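Reviewers of the previous submission asked for a worked example of the structure-prediction workflow described in the proposal, so we include one complete record here. The input consisted solely of the amino acid sequence. No template or homolog information was supplied to the procedure at any stage.
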Amino acid sequence: MLGDDRLYVFTGGKPPSLAELENRYLAQAAGSPSDAETWHNWIIRLVEGGNAVGYVQATVSGEESDIAWLVGVDWQGHGIASEAAAAMVEWLVANGTRRLIAHIHPDHAASGKVAAALGMLPTGATDAEGEAIWELRIQP
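From that input alone, the workflow returned the following structure tokens.
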């Protein structure tokens, strides 16, 4: 699923090798090297068949969560990212998140739709890579 070149149109780079994936997953499983944040990573699996089709992830620092999602090209356009991201946000809010942030390439309309479905809005700011910063503040 991560081997499709089309996944990297907006993020840059290329599909990771098996060794790169193993190293990435070992680092994710070990957790953040900072005591000030925690990492959460969930694999998105289809109900029927259980195939992995993507992931959602969050870096949590206090009441703030920086979130991201990725769904394989063959499964895009079916609401999977929106459903998985909504479930992640529900969990994050239940566990104390009061501000969500996402970094989205300005030309990536599909990710913008996922963020909007979560209630996020673009802030007008961009990060160092030129990605638009989207935000949602949650009232306790």
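The helical segments are 18-30, 80-94, 109-117. We consider this example representative of the routine output the project will generate in years two and three.
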